[in-house]
Amino acid sequence: MIGNPFVRCKKAEYHAHGILSASRSDIFKINPGVLEVKSRFLGWDEFEDSVRNLLSSAWCVSNYCYYIKSAISNLVLDNVCYAELSFDLSDHLTLGIEFDCWLELIFRECQSHGESILIKPEIGLNARHGSEFYRPWFVAACESGVFHSVDLYGNVNIDRALEFKSFFTFAERSNLKKKAHLGEFNDCGSSLEFLKFVALDEIQHGVSILNSPVGFSILSKKRIPLNLSLSSNIALGVVYSFESYPFRRMLDKDLSFRLSTDDYLVFGRSISDDAMAVCQLGLLSQLEMEAVLSKGVPLIP
Ligand SMILES: [Zn+2]
């Protein structure tokens, strides 16, 4: 393959943390420390330290908006025409602004990007904080009309995650799409347990479910799409390599999956970069990958 043929494909991004999707070259202009990003992390704690560093300059309104703008132009550069970007519901606290001002900010920054890209903001809930922490703002966020989906993220401990069951019920009533990080750091058994309690519309990662025969057949039966973040999984040691994904079996069994970037600011790889790596390794053909990418693009009125 000459160059990267996937850059010219229109594509969709279903799993990207908003401000962590900025580009390093942009953020370097306001925080030169971003050059020192590791390519592999020894566990979640080391990853969180890195994230804290990368976001250390994000916590004033103008910089926060700058991160969002950078993330969106980055997606446009990779020909992403539809993106669900998540923003932690407690970001207004870190920014030190009123919740309503933060809602307006998210609405404004994610609006009107002309013909090139449609951004759908997503409510991000970090499992580590627990549900009580987010309760004061969750209903208002769901009813604000700003958000399109909700995503439970972080090092999801299933017992703790189940605390969020009522949040998902409310999200569904508010017509928000329900997503959670499953099968990234938790095993297949606990992920499937979670799915018994919460009917997710999509799973972020899902690797441990995918790699268990029982999990794989449950996913196929339930027809839940997976948003796979390949470079993220490798950097965090969730999988060893691109070969660890059963791409061929997923296609044969018609199991829906998309490629996503998770945190471009940390991992520095676009959807096209990962798509190219998969094809160069012979795991899928270029035509098959183009079909995967185009299938993920929703019909935009
Ligand atoms: Zn994520």
Automatic annotation (TrEMBL):
Family matches, as Gene3D superfamilies: Metal-dependent hydrolases (3.20.20.140)
Record-linked InterPro entries: A_deaminase_dom (IPR001365), Ado/ade_deaminase (IPR006330), Metal_Hydrolase (IPR032466)
Transmembrane segments: none
Domain called Adenosine deaminase: residue spans: 70-275
Keywords of this entry: Hydrolase, Metal-binding, Zinc
Swiss-Prot/TrEMBL cofactor(s): Zn(2+)
Record's keyword annotation contains Hydrolase: yes
Family according to the record: Belongs to the metallo-dependent hydrolases superfamily. Adenosine and AMP deaminases family.
PANTHER family referenced in this protein's UniProt entry, alphabetically: ADENINE DEAMINASE
Protein name as annotated: Adenosine deaminase domain-containing protein
